[in-house]
Design a protein that fits this description.
2 copies of one chain form a homodimer.
Chain A: E1 2-6, H1 11-20, E2 25-30, H2 33-49, E3 55-60, H3 61-67, E4 70-73, H4 77-87, E5 95-98, E6 103-105, E7 109-111, H5 119-126, E8 131-134, H6 141-145, E9 153-159, H7 162-173, E10 178-184, H8 189-205, E11 213-215
Parallel strand pairs in A: 1-2, 1-4, 2-3, 4-5, 5-8, 9-10
Antiparallel strand pairs in A: 6-7, 8-9
Chain lengths: 216, 216
């Protein structure tokens, strides 16, 4: 499968790209092509050093999307809306995976959903007919980026298109020790999005860091 | 410590009562005193059979509250509001622990918070000056009631009174293999309350049951 990771120079993007690279073609997208190429090169080196064959390229967001079957949106909320506007002409049948969480920080982090109820629904409304799936908001990026650690987290996957949701659940299953869970329709993304600032605040309050979630 | 468990004839009430009974005096409260007495007797027998000394009595909700330092509200949302009205005259310095989740069921469960934002804030507004703490919404009652199982869950505790929150976190720590986490002020209870219907729905969708939550 060909996977574009937009915001792929960030930590979660890095983690997902590296976890999927042994089995898929990865395109790291960024506004800054040089940055995307450098990141892709760095990830490929990490994997090669571990004896893992892979194909990771860095390119522009637009070109990454044109080549992809699946597009991972791992960018801040405001940037994601601008990006989607720019990408609309090259979106056809790709599955969009939203990791987007609208939040602001005062003393603590606060979830600030749009009037649609959550970021994923806002993105879906901007892209009628395109399969938007919401997932990977609450994965510990430190664990995702460290291949020697067991992640032991759950990934809740929400979406209104069952086929697309199934593709994302299968991609999730490929990440060692991560369990995909069907979270229901896209509107339920509100819960997993709002967990993100809650987890950050709770980590700060309790002297923890980089919390993910597991349903036991 | 003297702990009243209102709704103590339900499963979560049973679990908490039995877990705390070895170290505290427990008063099971119910509208139906006979039912409360029978439940208390049953719980005490379970513990005695395991060689654990305990004191668990069944009584009316009002008498249970009069005797208690800590009052656990383990009743449905609508019933909790009526109950609080009745109990107001006997509430003094007790700490109220709200397990209350306002939700309705159509095809799926849906969180239906009051205009205050969550049940715990509604209850706090009804009881100015009383320490309301929100906790234990997402504990697996099957694991809580089965002393041979490791619960391995986290309990998020929210409240605006730091002293009362500390008491509840200490009580939580006494439950084997459960970790208390400070969830912040009472308004954050919205997150842990709304997780309840989400977890029930997710359990149904994924062929699981009785899900709790752990932050990893």
């Amino acid at each position: 499968m060909k996977i574009a990771v937009l915001g792929g120079t960030g930590r979660i993007g890095e983690g997902l790209a590296c976890r999927w690279a042994p089995h898929h073609e990865i395109y790291i997208g960024s506004r800054d092509i040089e940055k995307a190429k450098n990141a892709a090169c760095g990830y490929a080196c990490q994997l090669t050093d571990r004896g893992i064959d892979c194909r990771i390229d860095g390119t522009s967001n637009k070109e990454a999307v044109e080549k992809a079957d699946v597009v991972v949106l791992s960018v801040p909320y405001d940037a994601s809306l601008e990006l989607i506007e720019c990408l609309r002409p090259v979106l056809k049948n790709q599955i969009i995976i939203s990791l987007v969480v609208p939040m602001k920080k005062n003393r603590w982090f606060e979830y600030t959903p749009p009037e649609e109820g959550c970021a994923a629904l806002r993105i879906q409304h901007m892209l009628p007919g395109i399969s938007v799936v919401s997932a990977y908001h609450n994965l510990s990026f430190k664990k995702l980026c460290n291949f020697d650690l067991e992640i032991e987290g759950d990934v809740v996957v929400c979406g209104d298109y069952e086929g697309a949701k199934k593709v994302v659940m299968n991609l999730t299953q490929e990440i060692r020790s991560v369990r995909p869970l069907d979270g229901g329709p896209l509107r339920e993304s509100r819960m997993i999005e709002s967990l993100t600032p809650f987890l950050i605040n709770m980590a700060i309050r309790n002297g923890l860091s980089d919390l993910g979630v597991k349903f036991v």
